[in-house]
Write a structure and sequence with these properties.
This protein has 372 residues and is α/β, with parallel strands linked by helices. Helices cover 29% and strands 16% of the residues. The chain is built from ten helices and 14 strands. Helix 1 runs parallel beside helix 2 and helix 5 packs parallel to helix 6. The chain starts with 7 loop residues before the first strand and ends in a 30-residue tail after the last helix. Bound molecules: 2-Phenylacrylic acid.
Length: 372
């Protein structure tokens, strides 16, 4: 029987324990450039089995929220390199989450104030976070109406993910990448019947709706090796106005196609992102999904996320239900989360007023547990 505190291999990464830091949007990178404060923040959390960076834009068009970092400019990459150096100096491992928001954006955040892009010209009933450059004040705004990507533009999306992955590893010093195919952002928008009404090879059937994410994954794997690549999915989340007619069949098809790629990990948000893991109106069999992946020969770590606590995380790993558990909000307020879980110490509460934007407060000022 394995424990949450046992090491495990995740593709080419060797994790000293099975506690991951989930990707967490913090909006503290003005002009998309990581700051010295971000070096401190990630280095403080380096005892995680694996750190997953906050969602990081693969291109200017991929931006949907103010002050989210990017991976598409030299200054951004060099600033990330300082972050990964700081994590490595503390003995940690860090992968980056490659993010294209698709329609979850605002014209004020897009190059030339253009419409955001999406599989179809359908506006999400959702909000995005925009900081007023004049006052510095952040507010949630309704997302702008998107335009549908032309078929000829899709190779450009695949290319952007691939270039970002190569630069993330080569220039920015990340140990790997995770493609953000969850929470109603671009790749998830392609997957779903509610947001993808295309009539070309990228819409309609499950095979077609999975095509873009699979092209991105195969291209990234070809470029940096499957052992450095993970993917995040959220089969039934309602986040960002997403639904699907048959998520079980959709995601089973997806993981079957991912199985031959030799991935580092599959990262599954169970239930409603940041909410309950069980949704009465959106049932889903996660065990069957994992079995489908394994039966198809899928390797690497099966990582689960969403509201796990010490007890349920230990149980998930000990029972073999999952290999690694990713913690989000608990990692905001407990930089030494692994130690606290292992020693069964109390966890500190997070300050949700300081999740997005701002400086050190509610970011790098959460202490470790006192040494006994
Ligand atoms: C919270 C606020 C803004 C973005 C996600 C990247 O849901 C996010 C996100 C979360 O995946």
């Amino acid at each position: 029987m394995s424990s949450l505190f046992d090491p495990i291999e995740a593709g080419s990464l060797r994790l000293p324990n099975r506690v991951a830091m989930a990707p967490l949007t913090r909006n503290r990178a003005p002009h998309a450039i990581p700051t010295p404060l971000m070096q401190t923040y990630y280095a403080q959390r380096a005892s995680a089995g694996m750190l997953i960076s906050e969602g990081t834009a693969i291109s200017a068009q991929a931006q949907g929220y103010s002050d989210v970092p990017g991976l598409y400019g030299q200054e951004q990459l060099q600033a990330w390199k300082k972050v990964t150096n700081a994590v490595h100096a503390k003995g940690g491992r860090i992968v980056t989450q490659l993010w294209h928001v698709g329609r979850i954006s605002h014209t004020s955040l897009q190059p030339g104030n253009q419409a955001p892009v999406a599989p179809s010209a359908l506006t999400a009933q959702s909000k995005t976070y925009v900081i007023d450059p004049k006052t510095g004040e952040g507010k949630f705004h309704p997302t702008s109406a998107p335009r549908a990507l032309k078929s000829q533009e899709l190779p450009g999306i695949v290319h952007s993910f691939t270039v970002a992955a190569v630069e993330a590893v080569k220039s920015a010093g990340f140990d790997g990448v995770e493609l953000h195919s969850a929470n109603g952002y671009l790749l998830d928008q392609f997957l779903r019947t509610s947001s993808n009404h295309r009539t070309d090879d990228y819409g309609g059937s499950i095979e077609n709706r999975c095509r873009l994410v699979l092209e991105c994954m195969r291209s990234v794997v070809d470029a940096i090796g499957g052992g450095k690549v993970g993917i995040r999915i959220s089969p039934v989340t309602p986040a960002n106005d997403i639904t699907d007619e048959n998520p079980q069949a959709l995601f089973e098809h997806l993981v079957r196609q991912l199985a031959p790629l030799g991935l580092s990990y599959i990262h599954v948000i169970e239930g409603s992102t940041g909410g309950p893991r069980e949704l009465a109106d959106r049932p889903f069999d996660y065990h069957a999904l994992k079995q489908t992946y394994r039966i198809a020969g899928g390797k690497g770590v099966w990582m689960v996320n969403n509201g796990y606590d010490r007890q349920s995380a230990m149980q998930a790993v000990e029972s073999g239900y999952a290999d690694v558990v990713a913690f989000g909000k608990a990692y905001i307020s407990n930089p030494d989360l692994v130690h606290r879980l292992q020693a069964n110490l109390p966890l500190s509460d997070w300050d949700s007023q300081r999740f997005y934007g701002g400086g050190a407060e509610g970011y790098t000022d959460y202490p470790n547990a006192p040494q006994s």
